[in-house]
Amino acid sequence: MAEGRILMMQDTIRTYFNESIQIQVAAADTLAQAVEQAASLLVQSLLSGRRIFSCGDGNSAFIAHHFTDLLLHGSRLERPPFPAITLGANSTHPNQEECLSRQISALGSAGDLLVTFVCQQHSERVHQAMEAALSREMTIVTVVGEEAPEITGLLGPSDVEVRIPSSNPARIVEQQLFFSQLLVDLIERQIFEGE
Length: 195
Hints:
single chain; alpha/beta; 7 helices; isomerase activity; Phosphoheptose isomerase; carbohydrate derivative binding
């Protein structure tokens, strides 16, 4: 009986690994161009002296913080910090849905870039932040799962969507962490190594 539970547990573990690997392989096959476009937009903004804002919903909020930390402190290189800000979702104001958009309205300027990480089908806070960014003539890069039509519907021709081939929030967050690291590595290579 104990041996059966152990085998079942091992099967579950293998299933998790296999699902994650399959999503990563599918992402590598379909998202290389979108990731390259996103990295190029980020590099252009930074070289133009613009700021990078990031935000996320639910479990993706910590990805936005991690992304900003990488931009500020470096990933592979010891280098000067890039101007990066994580939009905070903690507010004492009763209308919590506006907390990100109000920060963009107060701090964002034309040419700045907003990077959003969304693992749910809809995030009102992120949606409103994107609307505020568009009104400030900012460019948007969004890293989302397969099912976020209200988020991706806001994107214009100069914006970039990195759509992770999964609808499972846990798998989306795993890939968002990977993409946040990859984007900063690509930025550092392009700016400091000329690649």
